[in-house]
Amino acid sequence: MDAASLRILVLAMLLAVGCGRTAPALNGAVFAVPAYPGAEVRDTLSAGTTDRHGQPVTDTQTWWLRFTDPPEKVVAFYDAGLPGARKFPSSEVPGTVARYEWKPSGASAEESVTVIISAQDIQISEIARPGKRTGATSWAGK
What we know:
- It contains 2 helices and 6 strands.
- It is an alpha+beta fold.
- The chain has one domain (3-137).
- Strands 1-2-6-5-4-3 form a 6-stranded antiparallel β-sheet, covered by helices on one side.
């Protein structure tokens, strides 16, 4: 694990301990994506894209989480937990409180994470190169 990913993991763990709650597991995540402590994973979806020859190009995993804290607290968590992320004003995305586009340390050009926060929900989408994701959530080759 690289230094930036380790820093994010430690930050998430410290915030989870400080809140007295644990962060939910994002099963199948390739990168150290922070999940808001106390949130509950409600649903997941795996998808991908292929080139014109049917070869996998991207492998996407999305998690939908539900939280009960004020949205401002969740935004503060992601402001701290996604170093270097591009944050979009809520006015650019109707129905959201905040949206982030993040390039994790070690990610290739086509890999990224998007976090969208609404009044009670978080949507986390991770785009990875085929073959990086392991286990049942891997879309590549299906």
